[in-house]
Amino acid sequence: MNANEDSVRFAVLGPVRAWRGGQEVDVGSPQQRAVLAVLLLRRGRPVTLGELLDAVWGEEPPTAAVSVVRTYVSRLRKGLEPGRGAADAPRTIVSVGDGYLLRIPEGALDLGVFEQRVAEARKLRAGGDPSAAADLLHAALGGWQGAALAGVPGPLAESEGSRLNEQRLTALEMRLDVDVELGRHGEVIAELVALTGKYPLREQLCRLLMLALYRSGRQAEALAAYRGTRATLVAELGIEPGAPLKDLHDRILAADASLSADVSPDAGLPGPSRPPEPGPSAKPAPPVVAHTALPAQLPADLPTFAGREAELDRIRALLPEAGEAPASVVIAAIGGMGGMGKTTLAVHWAHEMADRFPDGQLYVNLRGFDPTGVVVAPDDAIRTFLDALGVPPMRIPASLDAQAALYRSMLAQRRVLVLLDNARDTEQVRPLLPGSPGCLVIVTSRNQLTGLVAAEGAHPLTLDQLTPAEAYDLLARRLGTGRPAAEPRAVDEIVTRCARLPLALSIVAAHAAAYPDFPLSAIVDELRESHGSLDAFAGGDDITTDVRAVFSWSYKALSGPAARLFRLLSLHSGPDISAPAAAALAGLAPREARGLLVELTRAHLLTEHFPGRYTLHDLLRVYAAERVHAEETAQERDLAVQRLLSWYLHTADAAYAYITPRRRPIPLDPLPALCRRREFTTHDEALGWCETERGNLVSAVHQAADSGHPGIAWRLPAVLWGFFYLRSHMHDWLDTAGVGLAAARATHDREGEAQGLADLAAALRSSGRLDETIDHLRQAMAAYRDLGDHHGRGSAVSNLGDAYLQTGQLAMGVEYTRRGLAIERVIGSAWGEGIALSNLGDAYQRLGRFDEAVDSLDQALAVLRVNGNRWVEGITLDILGTVHRRLGRYDTAVEYHLQALRTHRDIGNRWGEGHTLSNLGDVRLDAREPQAARDSWLQALAIFVEFDHPDAEKVRARLGRLEDGTPGARAQEAAEPGRTA
Q1: How confident is residue 502, by pLDDT bands cut at 50, 70 and 90?
Q2: Is residue 276 pLDDT above 60, yes or no?
Q3: Measured between alpha carbons, how far is 161 from 953 in angstroms, rounded to an integer?
Q4: E-state strands within 366-485
Q5: Nearest-angstrom CA–CA distance, 429 and 546
């Protein structure tokens, strides 16, 4: 198309519009647009007056209809040809007989461009070029700005609009089909869910949704989609699904391998190479993308790995040759006593096989024989895996069975390697097994796992000591070939005294490497002097007597401070420990602690599995626990635990100040002497630390409750609530808040009980369990009243008002919010006052009392900004946008929503961002900007789908109504996310 000032172009795929050059032409009233639509749809063929009358008014045109039509045509001519003289003949709309003909330049009508692109896409697809076809289909559908002929009255508009909308839907089905064919199944799921909700009787959409879900590892949801469509067909039409849909259902149940995607799911969306689109409309938003993560969790392979060739040959034979996928789930169960090198062998083989499992590698240490007794429960392990696979925390169900089903669905039709290290028994392992062919599972355990072999078809491999040659090779790889060759007898005795046990040999090799000038015979003399036994291995193994000798010998070679840190590390219950936490545990300066950690790592008594983060092998933890009980008094052990737990609490409190600045502080006992908390400089740094330490923080709450530190047990969840909320760690939030509350109650700590009730109520509220929220807040109110804590009582009352507001009990919500506001003002709590004012403004806007709403919200903003409460500031700005939208002040509403978005994004409040985008879409639609509304709603839907938020359904409904051009009544505004005083 030309872009000069005389060119014209038209749109009927949405509202009927026209442009001349770069300027839009006013095409008049709805009836005048109907006349233009009739002329456009004839595609350069004449339309008689009678046909125009029938098209616009049907069988009962008004008396002056002919005159009115001629007037409409005259006005259209002036708009389309403003420079035409009175004596000049019309060039665009010309008279033909008793009717008219509209001359449309080629490519000037969006409908023609759409049809041409769809036809070309069909040819490209049939010719074997689906990628180019997808580009054209995306471009073709991008030209639609709503329902065809939207807002145009008359019989012709109604019939032609239905026909054109059906064409669009058919093209959309083809585009989605091609996208799924190209492996973009994860990217179209949200769009397909919205479409199947809008068109529940279209079996092709259901078929595509089922296939996309299945290829994304969501088998259970694919089957649920079929059940939903079948129920609708039976209820509304009395028929069963057609053969294609039934066949797909049966093939999914059978895990038909032919359903796997043929094209990599990494194929991108059509990019800027799409053909230009007619009209000056904005580009449509991309489809909602549901990413599936590609985990790579294997620990590092040991560069000096030696021996085990016979064992490697046995387990290599478990997989098909030539890189083919296994026809079933392959399970290798590697057993043997502690220190035999099970993990080292498993990790080495896993790295060797990793490229045969391109969909990722999962790893978890199940801590089955951890001396602290902290065994990883199957549901905790599954949550770790689901998180690594990209499942949002809110999508993870509560029960173990449901979690296992989701986990198996995520692995369906994928080739993933799963390493389950240090398993205790079969029951711990079974829920972690994939359910579909193509995966490899490697399990290590000190137990034989006979149940896994018998019931699951696992292939057992029991490790024994290294052969003498393999033991020699291990030493040579660590020390070089020169020293072992020079002292063969010393090497033989080292091998004998280490019982050919890989862990013991590695420790001896590390010590010998640290002293390269020492003869190996001197090492042998030291081993002879420290000969002993390790009781933890009692049970008939004839090699155990030398294990403690090796540990003891390496331990005695440590400096005094390093030996003390080593034994204290056994008191830490978390999965790993950082250098600052280790410093707190030992009461040392961080710099001194780092030097000691290096000493322990070099002695192979500690593993630095990630820069600055350390773990103890479970056998060494046993030995360290023996030494700490033998060499430290009970008082010193308790002081070390107190230092560590206090460090976690105070550092979490330092992060709390950045995540929820200026919120009422939680009273803490002073940090113990010789203990320095970590400080932060930014919000993101504080959030990042909490995420990295999450497992340790959860363990710390439990350890505090179990070790006689209940004050830490309830205070730690109190300072972590903002982190748990922003990152949607609902399970951890509910767990720690519940443990903290129980610890406070067990010791009759009424202050802790009140705080625990408030924290658990906040977690329940964010989980949508509003009845339980109300119950806990009522208990918290009573506890704070007993304590005479007016601040706490004011917060509980205000939060109770918010809870009632979210349940739709507006009168109760207003009553309790006003009570809370009065209390906050009496006690001078500006923080609580700002939140209460925001809640009250929201209640007023829901009741339609807009002047009172604006007044309360303006007051709230002033108070919130003075106190730096950006969290509730963002929510308040969003509510103000809703108020102004309902008052018809769309420009003002948009500005408030954009301010709210910036605030939410600054603090990482993704839930708030989703709600504001949803509300912004409402404003855009009311302002007659349907494409902008769609864009905002799709962005909101992406966030709600990510968190499995129930408001996703509301947004899908809005998108569905937008598709047919009749948005109708909007769903009631969504509950605002997380305002707690």
Answers
A1: confident
A2: no
A3: 27
A4: 417-423, 440-445, 459-462
A5: 31
Q: How far is CA 818 from the centre of its chain?
A: 37
- The two three-digit tokens of residue 944, written as one number: 């709600």
- 65 and 57 Cβ atoms separated by less than 8 Å: yes
Q: If we measure between CA atoms, which residue out of 571, 565, 728, 736 comes closest to residue 649?
A: 736
Beta bridge partners of 333: 443, 460
- Taking CA 232 as the corner, what is the angle to CA 227 and CA 235, rounded to the nearest 5 degrees? 120
The separation between CA 577 and the C-alpha centre of its own chain, rounded to angstroms, equals 25
pLDDT of residue 978: 52
What is the distance between the alpha carbons of residues 304 and 499, in angstroms, rounded to a whole number? 20
pTM above 0.90, yes or no: no
Rounded to whole angstroms, how far apart are CA atoms 271 and 285? 12
Lookup: tokens for 633: 């008094």
How many CB atoms are closer than 10 A to CB 535? 10
Q: Do residues 474 and 348 make contact, with C-beta atoms less than 8 angstroms apart? A: no
Residue 789, both tokens: 């804590």
593-602: Cβ within 8 A, 24+ apart: 593/565, 596/559, 596/561, 596/562, 596/565, 597/565, 599/558, 599/559, 599/562, 600/558, 600/562, 600/565, 600/566, 602/510, 602/514
Q: Which among 594, 593, 592, 672 is positioned nearest to 639, based on CA atoms?
A: 672
Alpha-carbon torsion, ordered 890, 894, 900, 902, to 10 deg: -170
Q: How far apart are CA 619 and CA 626, in angstroms?
A: 11
CA atoms of 714 and 89, how far apart (whole Å):
86
- The residue type of 471 is A
pLDDT band at residue 463 under the 50/70/90 scheme: confident
Q: What are the helix and strand counts (H, E) for the chain?
A: 42, 13
Find where tokens 């030309």 sit.
2
Q: How much is the average pLDDT of 772-779?
A: 95
Calculate the CA 435 to chain-centre distance: 23
Distance CA 330, CA 535 (A): 36
* Average pLDDT of the residues in 532-543: 34
Is the CA virtual torsion 956, 959, 963, 968 positive or negative? positive
Strand partners, 443: 333, 420
Going by C-alpha positions, the residue among 482, 504, 486 that lies closest to residue 495 is: 504
Which pLDDT tens digit goes with each residue over 880-939? 999 999 999 999 999 999 999 999 988 888 888 999 999 999 999 999 898 899 889 988
pLDDT at position 880 is: 96
Residue 570's identity, in one-letter code, is: S
DSSP H stretches of helix in 660-789:
683-692, 694-706, 710-726, 730-746, 750-766, 770-787
Task: Sort strands 459-462 and 330-335 into parallel, antiparallel or unpaired.
Answer: parallel
User: How many CB atoms are closer than 10 A to CB 551?
Assistant: 25
Given pLDDT bands bounded at 50, 70 and 90, which one contains residue 37?
very high
| Tokens coding 628 | 């700490």
Q: What are the tens digits of pLDDT across the range 296-310?
A: 888 888 777 888 888
**223-261 per-position pLDDT tens digit:** 888 888 888 877 777 777 888 888 888 788 766 777 875
- Residue 918 to residue 675: CA distance in whole angstroms: 47
Cβ 368 vs Cβ 335: under 8 Å:
no
Q: What confidence score (pLDDT) does residue 233 get?
A: 79
State the angle between helix axes of 710-726 and 634-659 in degrees (0 to 180), rounded to the nearest 10. Answer: 30
Amino acid present at 360? G
| CA dist list (Å): 805 to 98, 938, 949 | 64, 27, 18
pLDDT at residue number 364: 93
Mean pLDDT, rounded, for 681-696: 91
DSSP state of 680: -
Q: Kindly provide the residue ranges of all beta strands, DSSP E only, lying in 345-470, ordered along the sequence.
A: 361-365, 417-423, 440-445, 459-462
CB 905 within 8 A of CB 917: no
